[in-house]
Each structure stands twice: as C-alpha cells, then as structure tokens.
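Bench notes, afternoon.
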Amino acid sequence: MTPHNEAAPGDFAGTVLLPGDPLRAEWIAGTFLDAPRCVNRVRGAYGFTGSFRGRPVSLQATGIGRPSFTIYFHELAAGYGVRTFIRIGSCGALLPDQPLRKVFIADSAVMDVDMANGVSPGRPDPVLHAAALQAAHDIGIDCLSGPLVSSDVFYHPTPETRFDVPRAAGIVAVDMETANLFTLAEQYQARALSICTLVDNLWTGEETPLSERHEIFRNMALLALEVAARMPAD
C-alpha cells in the first residue's frame, strides 16, 4: 500500500498499462481482460488486474500530466516492483495529413521546454517498440510510429505557433506524458513503451467527438495488451 494506491503486495502484475482516464481503465479491463478485479480506488484513480490470453496484466489510471503521472509511476515501480510500463493515451497530430483515430507508437519523446536546451529525446525500450510494430502488423492494426513532443500546457495562449519548433525538428505528434515516461523508466531501470491514439489535429483544428470516448481507443488497447502477452514474464 502507498499513499495513492490501496493495492496489496502482489495485486499488480509485472506489466502495467497506464491510461490517464480512470473510466478508460475500467472500460479496458471490462472489455478485454479475463477475470478482472479492481485493486485500487483511491481518489477515483482505478487500478485493475486480470489476464489477457493467459498472461497477467494490470491497468492503473494516472490522471493528467507529469505530476500525477510521476506519482503513479513511482509508486508502481518503487512500491510494487512493476518493471514494464505501457502508456495508452491520447495524442495530437502536428501535421495536416495525419488521420485522426490512428494508433501512434512513439519512437522518441522530448519535453517542449527541453528542446531549446538541447536535451536528447528519451526512447522506448527497443524490444517493446519492435514488438509493438510486429504485433500491429500481425493483427492488422494500421499505425504510425515517429517522434513525439510532450508539454505541460494543454491550453496555450498562442496555439497556432506553439509547436513550430518541434515541427521544424521533424516531430509529428504531441501529448503530455510520454517524455516523462521514458525519463522515469531510465531512472528506475524499467521498460517503457507509449502507444497513443490521434484524437485531434493541432494544424487543422479537427477533433474527435467525446461520444467516442472509449471505442476510439479500442485498437490502441488491444495492441498494448498484445505486446504485453508477447513479452517474457517479468
């Protein structure tokens, strides 16, 4: 048990999927996992453990942004011994020709505030990343893979130009957590992967409707679970 998680030792599997939205965690557990059970309800940040194709796997909601994400990552790694983390969340397209609803697998990520200082992007575990690309091919999920920028700011006063620097550097998508995920994984010597879904386009202004809150993430969730099932036991 930790300050933000009531799960008992052993309640979390060695591989944990990290959605931001607690309701998305609940939906994924109920839709895809065999024998899911809720292991955490503290602050409404649901955690679930079940199995997928016979492999134990967990989900833990992390909330929005770096501070909340860092708390849950730290407590899972330091308090529960989790060694493999797969972020599953939303991201935004930065180029006009990127179709919404497509799965996006980050091959690198950097914070926007770090770009001017020459900070090198973080990267996913190469075995996880390769497994995700192969699994997507095998089960017929059309996806993109490329560099991503993360930002702590969701509502920005100059949205039209705020991502000019990342675009010029060849970065094609944005979220709020992936760069932090890769940094934390290196710090804790854990394995990390980020699989997102493009839900809006910051170039064209196109957005997906809230009515698609869960179904839009079906392929992303299925791909992450397929990766988890293919990995050696932690």
